[in-house]
Amino acid sequence: MNREKSSLARSRFALLSNAYYIFQKDLQLEFRTRYAVNAIFMFAITTLTAVSFSIGPARLKSMVLAPLLWIVLFFSAMSGLAHIFVREEEQQTADTLRLVTRPSTVFLGKWFFNLVLLFSLELVIVPLYVVMMNFSVANVGAFLLLLFLGSIGLASVATVIAAIISQAGTRGALFAVLSFPISLPILISAIHGTRLTIDGALFSDCLSDLQVLFSFSVVIITISLMLFDFIWRK
Amino acid sequence: MWKIKATNITQKFNNRLIFRDISFELNSGESLVITGPNGSGKTTLVRIICQLLKPTAGTVRFYHQDRPLAPEQLYPVIGLVGPYLQLYNSLTALENYKFFARIRGLPVDIRYFRQLMDRLGLKGRELDELRTYSSGMLQRVKYVMALIHQPVVLILDEPTSNLDEKGTEIVYEIMEEQKKEKILILATNEPGEIQFGEKQIRVA
């Protein structure tokens, strides 16, 4: 019994430490090539600038501000997050990875990398959005929580879809097409919740949106971990 | 005692039959050569043996002391070198070594790494990014990464491609050592390499 427990603990530790090594390797590669970072940040800044110029000095209501923010975040994320698996397939390192570690560690490592990338994007885009779009949030705490949970959901969807499309021929087009319908519950709840936080709603008013984001992320991560074995192995 | 047992492996892509009913058994101290014309499915068979590809029919099982091994138990057992298996070109040889050693659960032993690099004729290139390597040097560094965990089963697909005379000699030494007590599988058509296999399969 004790031996089983210690073997389970060792296996979990190996899973997490290997996921960390994959994350660390991807971070190191991204610092060298800057492929995903450049794609995401250039797309985000270009879109934000275009939207800001087209609106001009007009002061927008929360009904427009909230969806615009999430549209910029969603499409910027979609422009670069697929790269995490596409790079492994294109550079023929995916099989090397398949030979050395379990599929679930690969998923966790890649998911964490995408999450960190998305958080970094938000660190830049949200302050810029505040300045360029006269965006102000009355309930900052709830907004930050929405942003956090929304990012976890988006990163999870993006990671598993990236793994699927990396096996296909028409990768670029497929990624946004497949990710959008699956991300829809995240976008609807995040946009609705963000609108409430701009209008100064209480934390309890945003609770249902937060619950949807949390539950959706848990479901997507669980399903991804269960299915990833079939996606990853050919 | 280690054993690989392949039973009636058949592979089809769409409706095209690549090969049918390939069976073999290999024990520690034995070696196998897979030969056949271009496009006959040598690489496909290698990928099936390494569990990188599921065959249309048939099985490949690995045994240790007559106990079958689960797929996740094979990571420390197999070492593969093949033209379709690449390393991370934007990382240095040392960074690649550190990544593969850690993910395999091995201690990062720089001295051992330097010994392997030295043996493969890559001394002094440890801190260079792999994209600065020539194709022959890349083939050599693939051997370094495939040997870091001292695999029981070493599988080499086109073992000497891109290698010069000296590199070929080093690889022959590695193959000779491997087949003494462990298992060696080669996919090749080179006459000089076919002699390394005690058993032979011809896919056609």
Model description:
The complex is a heterodimer of chains A (234) and B (204). By secondary structure, chain A is mainly alpha-helical. Chain A has one domain. In chain A, 86% of the residues lie in helices and 0% in strands. Chain A is built from nine helices and no strands. The longest helix of chain A is centred in the first third of the chain and has 32 residues, at 2-33. Chain B has 204 residues and is an alpha/beta fold. Chain B has helices at 42-49, 93-103, 110-119, 135-147, 165-181, 191-194; strands at residues 2-13, 16-27, 31-35, 57-64, 67-68, 78-81, 153-157, 183-187, 199-202. In chain B, strands 6-7-8-3-9 form a five-stranded parallel β-sheet, with helices on both faces. In chain B, β7, α5 and β8 (183-187) form a beta-alpha-beta unit. The longest helix of chain B has 17 residues, at 165-181. The two termini of chain B are 32 Å apart. Chain A binds chain B through residues 14, 17-18, 21-22, 24-25, 28-29, 32-33, 91-93, 95-96, 98-102, 233-234, and chain B through 47, 50-54, 72, 75, 78, 80, 84-91, 95, 99-100, 102-105, 129.
What's the SSE blueprint?
The complex is a heterodimer of chains A (234) and B (204).
Chain A: H1 2-33, H2 35-55, H3 62-80, H4 83-90, H5 94-100, H6 103-132, H7 140-165, H8 171-198, H9 203-232
Helix pairs in contact in A: 1-6, 2-3, 2-6, 3-6, 3-8, 4-7, 6-7, 6-9, 7-8, 7-9, 8-9
Chain B: E1 2-13, E2 16-27, E3 31-35, H1 42-49, E4 57-64, E5 67-68, E6 78-81, H2 93-103, H3 110-119, H4 135-147, E7 153-157, H5 165-181, E8 183-187, H6 191-194, E9 199-202
